[in-house]
C-alpha cells in the first residue's frame, strides 16, 4: 500500500465523469467543462470518438504528441487510453497525478454509479490509503434513463436495474434479485444482456404475466454513433415474446426493460410508447 500524505491546497482533483451515452448533447455542461479543462483525461477509444464530435476533445488530426497536445489557450492536456486490463494501474497513476497538482477526468460511460467507474476508484483509493486525494463524481445519464426517454414514460413508477454480468457474482444471486424484483412489481431494466438474457426472462416469467410489455433497446441516446449495426433501436413486445428477438440483442449496448401489470402500450399516429402511471393513477387523479 502507498503511504498517505496530508492533503494540501496544491493537490488537484480526481473527477469521475459520467458522459451518459457519450454524444455531446447528452452530457451535462458540468461534465463537458471538467473534461475540457482537466490536465489529463483517462478515456477509452470509443468515448474519445464521441467526445471529439463537438471539440470536447481535439480532432484526431490535431497535433498530439504521445497523448499530449496544446490547447488554443496555450495550456497542455494529456490523453490516457483506458482499457479493461489497465484499470488498476490507471487508478494508481491518477492518484499520483492528483498529488502532483493535476486535475484528472476519469471518463465513465452512462453514470459512474450505475455499473460505471466510481466503485473502482473509491475501492482503489481505500486499498491504497489515498485519503489525501480529492475525488468528485460528475453524474451522467445511464442507459435505463436514456432508453426510457425514447420509450415514453415506462419508469414513472418504482423501478430497479439488474446487471446480468456474472463477473463478480454467481447466477444464484442474480436470479434471487430478479425474482424479488419481479414479485415486488418493480419495472426491471436489465443491463449486460449478452449474458444469459433468455435465462433472466424465464425467471421473470415465473413471477410476472406473459402479456406485460417489454422493450429491447440498443445504444440508447447514441443515434448512429454506437456499436449497433442498425444504429439506435427499440423493439416493443410481450414478455413471452422477448426471447424470440435474438437479432435485437446486440451486445454491451443492449438493455431490456420489463414492465409490470400497470405498464401499457400507447400509440399515436407515428409510433408506440410504453406508459407506467405512477401508483396506477388515471387522468382524474391528477
UniProtKB/TrEMBL annotation:
<comment type="pathway">
    <text>Cofactor biosynthesis; adenosylcobalamin biosynthesis.</text>
</comment>
<keyword id="KW-0489">Methyltransferase</keyword>
<dbReference type="InterPro" id="IPR014776">
    <property type="entry name" value="4pyrrole_Mease_sub2"/>
</dbReference>
<keyword id="KW-0169">Cobalamin biosynthesis</keyword>
<keyword id="KW-0949">S-adenosyl-L-methionine</keyword>
<feature type="domain" description="Tetrapyrrole methylase">
    <location>
        <begin position="13"/>
        <end position="223"/>
    </location>
</feature>
<dbReference type="Pfam" id="PF00590">
    <property type="entry name" value="TP_methylase"/>
</dbReference>
<dbReference type="GO" id="GO:0009236">
    <property type="term" value="P:cobalamin biosynthetic process"/>
</dbReference>
<dbReference type="GO" id="GO:0008168">
    <property type="term" value="F:methyltransferase activity"/>
</dbReference>
<dbReference type="InterPro" id="IPR000878">
    <property type="entry name" value="4pyrrol_Mease"/>
</dbReference>
<dbReference type="GO" id="GO:0032259">
    <property type="term" value="P:methylation"/>
</dbReference>
<dbReference type="InterPro" id="IPR006363">
    <property type="entry name" value="Cbl_synth_CobJ/CibH_dom"/>
</dbReference>
<dbReference type="InterPro" id="IPR035996">
    <property type="entry name" value="4pyrrol_Methylase_sf"/>
</dbReference>
<dbReference type="InterPro" id="IPR014777">
    <property type="entry name" value="4pyrrole_Mease_sub1"/>
</dbReference>
<protein>
    <submittedName>
        <fullName>Cobalt-factor-III C17-methyltransferase</fullName>
        <ecNumber>2.1.1.272</ecNumber>
    </submittedName>
</protein>
<keyword id="KW-0808">Transferase</keyword>
<dbReference type="InterPro" id="IPR051810">
    <property type="entry name" value="Precorrin_MeTrfase"/>
</dbReference>
Amino acid at each position: 500500500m502507498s503511504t498517505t500524505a496530508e492533503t494540501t491546497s496544491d493537490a488537484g482533483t480526481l473527477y469521475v465523469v459520467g458522459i451518459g451515452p457519450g454524444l455531446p448533447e447528452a452530457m451535462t455542461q458540468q461534465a463537458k467543462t471538467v473534461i475540457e479543462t482537466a490536465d489529463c483525461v483517462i478515456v477509452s477509444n470509443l468515448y474519445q470518438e464521441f467526445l471529439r464530435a463537438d471539440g470536447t476533445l481535439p480532432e484526431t488530426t490535431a497535433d498530439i504528441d504521445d497523448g499530449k497536445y496544446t490547447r488554443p489557450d496555450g495550456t497542455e492536456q494529456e490523453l490516457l487510453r483506458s482499457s479493461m486490463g489497465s484499470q488498476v494501474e490507471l487508478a494508481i497513476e491518477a492518484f499520483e497525478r492528483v498529488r502532483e497538482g493535476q486535475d484528472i477526468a476519469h471518463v465513465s460511460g452512462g453514470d459512474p454509479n450505475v455499473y460505471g467507474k466510481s466503485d473502482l476508484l473509491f475501492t482503489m483509493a481505500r486499498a491504497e490509503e489515498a485519503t489525501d486525494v480529492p475525488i468528485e463524481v460528475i453524474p451522467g445519464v445511464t442507459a435505463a434513463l436514456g432508453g426510457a426517454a425514447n420509450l415514453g414514460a415506462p419508469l414513472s413508477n418504482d423501478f430497479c436495474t439488474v446487471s446480468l454480468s456474472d463477473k463478480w457474482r454467481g447466477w444464484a444471486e442474480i436470479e434471487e434479485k430478479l425474482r424479488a424484483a419481479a414479485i415486488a412489481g418493480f419495472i426491471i431494466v436489465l443491463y449486460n444482456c449478452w449474458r444469459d438474457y433468455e435465462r433472466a426472462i424465464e425467471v421473470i416469467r415465473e413471477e410476472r404475466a406473459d402479456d406485460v410489455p417489454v422493450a429491447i433497446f440498443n445504444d440508447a441516446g447514441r443515434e448512429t454513433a454506437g456499436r449497433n449495426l442498425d444504429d439506435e433501436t427499440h423493439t416493443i413486445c410481450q414478455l413471452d415474446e422477448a426471447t424470440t428477438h435474438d437479432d435485437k440483442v446486440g451486445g454491451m449496448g443492449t438493455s431490456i426493460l420489463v414492465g409490470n401489470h400497470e405498464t401499457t402500450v400507447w400509440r399515436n399516429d407515428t409510433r408506440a410508447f410504453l406508459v407506467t402511471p405512477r401508483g396506477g393513477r388515471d387522468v382524474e387523479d391528477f
